[in-house]
Amino acid sequence: MDQPIQGFTSTISAASTPKNSEAKRGIKRAILFSLLALTVTAAGAGYWVYWKQVGSRYVKTDNAYTAAEVALVTAEIDGPVAQVNVVDSQQVKHGDVLVVIDDTDTQLALRQAEADLARARAQVAAATADLQRSGVDLKRREALVSSGSVSGDELTKVINGASNARASLNAARAAVALAEAHVDKANVDLGRTVIRSPIDGVIARRQVQLGERVQASTPLLSVVPVSEMYVDANFKEVQLKQVRPGQKVELVSDLYGDKVAFHGVVEGFNGGTGAAFALIPAQNATGNWIKVVQRLPVRIRLNPDELAAHPLRVGLSMDAKVDLRSNSQQLASTSAVTDSNS
User: Fold this and answer.
1) Using an 8 Å Cβ cutoff, are 98 and 197 in contact?
2) Are the C-beta atoms of 316 and 65 separated by less than 8 Å?
3) Helix (H, G, I), strand (E, B), or coil: what is residue 197?
């Protein structure tokens, strides 16, 4: 009797074991799915919080480059180059002598103009004396007319002579004014033989060479005002909905890396996209048109003190991040101050 009972018990245990295993696996799957759902929910909530607090507050781009209002220095008179005092990358101050053009021709022109002026002034003196003499003669003849000692024809001649003397004096005075203008022009040309830096900056693209004969308007070199650099940040058009002038910008340059942060302010927007001003503009009217998101340059003014501490050069790559809320906060504070003052 014992053996059949044992076999029955073994059969029941063997049948119940797979069901228990399946139940355990089901519980594990449920736990895993619950954990996955919690993870996804937490990630979604975290992203939502990040977007509300950070993501929606900023727009950024790595398509940004430094720029400056470069001063192009050109020759203003003709002549051979006598001195070149600068080289590329050299720092210069406003008023520093950059290039000197030989002044031999301009010195001669000045002396000639001064001689012409002296001659014109002598002619004024002679014409003045003639006018005074003709005036005296006219008065004398007019006094004798009543006595019949002077005929009418003679008086007419004297009157005409006085008129001619006055006209000669006026012409001589005009010649003096013209001669003075020539002297002034010669002095200006002489001053233009010494070419000075129009701004503080760094020399770039020096093309002039010693001994070269230059013509007026010949480009000589450029001066880059590194203390007045700005950034052209090319944002996608879909990023600019909330960007406004006056908003704060944080920038990082590839030159210095993340350890150096520059701070700037949005100054304004370019008048058109890069594609609009390209040498070969896009033919959007053709049947093969494909829509491409455009980029609009945004001008960002940099902090001069930060530029002095970490100088930049034209064309360097920058990362720019605009704080979209900064302008609204500034406007709100400005309005509050205005209301309190009123």
Assistant:
1) yes
2) yes
3) coil
Give the integer Cα–Cα distance in Å for 302 and 186: 43
Structural contact between residues 107 and 210, judged by C-beta atoms closer than 8 angstroms = no
Q: What is the pLDDT of residues 148-187, one digit of tens each?
A: 666 666 767 777 888 888 898 899 999 999 999 999 999 9
Query: Which helix (H) or strand (E) element contains residue 84?
Result: strand 79-84
Cα–Cα distance for residue pair 53/33, rounded to 1 Å: 30
Cα separation, 247 vs 251, whole angstroms: 13
How many CB atoms within 10 Å of residue 254? 10
Asked whether the CA dihedral 203, 207, 212, 215 is positive or negative, the reply is: negative
> Hey, what are 91's tokens?
């720092």
What span, in angstroms and rounded, lies between the C-alpha atoms of 306 and 184? 45
Q: Which residues of 202-212 are buried (b: 16+ CB within 10 A; e: fewer)?
A: bbbebebeeee
231 and 322 Cβ atoms separated by less than 8 Å: no
> Closest Cα to residue 98, out of 243, 230, 207, 236?
207
**d(Cα 129, Cα 310) in Å, to the nearest integer?**
72
What global pTM score does this model have? 0.72
201-253, pLDDT tens digit by residue?
A: 999 999 999 999 999 999 999 999 999 999 999 999 999 999 999 999 999 99
The whole-angstrom separation of Cα 47 and Cα 54 is 10
